[in-house]
Amino acid sequence: MADERPLEDQIRLEYRGKIAWITIDRPEVGNALNPPCRDRIRDLVLELNTNHRARVIVLTAAGEKLFCPGADLSHTYENDRADDVPDRVIGDPRRMMLDGQYTLFPAILDSDLPIISAVNGTAAGMGSHLALACDLVIAADNAKFVEVFARRGLVPDALGPWLLPRIIGVRRTMELLLFADDVPADRALELGLVNRVVPAAELEAATMEWAERLASGPTRSFGFTKWLVNQSLDVDRRTMMENASVAVELNTYTEDSQEGVASFRERRDPAWKGY
């Protein structure tokens, strides 16, 4: 059943001080994402980079059982192609992915703001990768992660084959992708898929604790740190040294960097502004 509510109600944005909470709230489809909802998450993250209303982002979902099971397969696509062209043409799925889900993940990975995913339940397929693309992952003890693709004879997408080896290594990635077994929260913690596992009733409070710490920190420094870490396995040593040097130089011009030096000299706690 299609969700007729406004898009803003299905993907909710709430500001809690300098923390932006993005909540997937689509109970009719178990928090699965259709293209408009997927794109709203992307657009919100991109907007938060520049409006300076928040210094950290939390990505979570409503309910107690499902974080996001992946794509909403009930979504129907409008087709306005010429009458003499078949409904499916070679290259269509590739273009749909490049213009769709593969615009969401770079927005998260390349965001200047730290992003925490608070995983309240099952995260499967694209939903699992959505959580894992965030900088920090806190999972409720009832959460689980499922690389569901092999169960349906599908090839993993949503950047999973790029994300997983960087997080848990190639061997364990192969195990998850080929067997497609459920990974409970405690096992996810052992593998290194998540940072913390907390009782479900404490998920919001635990996430808020970390978010408040980040929201009161040196935001520009965090952004440069993300930029360096996320490229660390893709570039050679010389390139990393060059990029790190650029990041360090640019950061020295931020007010927070100058505040950090001043507070050290004056033997006091720094007062970070976020810029």
Architecture overview:
The protein has 275 residues and is of the alpha/beta class. The protein folds into two domains: 7-215, 2-enoyl-CoA Hydratase, Chain A, domain 1; 219-265. Helices cover 45% and strands 16% of the residues. It has twelve helices and ten strands. The strands form two sheets. A six-stranded mixed sheet has the order 1-2-3-5-7-10, sandwiched between helices. Strands 4-6-8-9 form a four-stranded mixed sheet. Helix 2 (35-51) links the parallel strand 2 (19-24) and strand 3. The mean pLDDT is 95.
Write the layout of secondary structure elements.
Blueprint: H1 7-10, E1 11-16, E2 19-24, H2 35-51, E3 56-61, E4 66-68, H3 92-99, H4 101-109, E5 115-119, E6 122-124, H5 126-132, E7 136-140, E8 144-146, H6 160-168, H7 170-179, E9 182-184, H8 185-191, E10 196-198, H9 203-215, H10 219-231, H11 237-252, H12 255-265
Parallel strand pairs: 2-3, 3-5, 4-6, 5-7, 6-8, 7-10
Antiparallel strand pairs: 1-2, 8-9
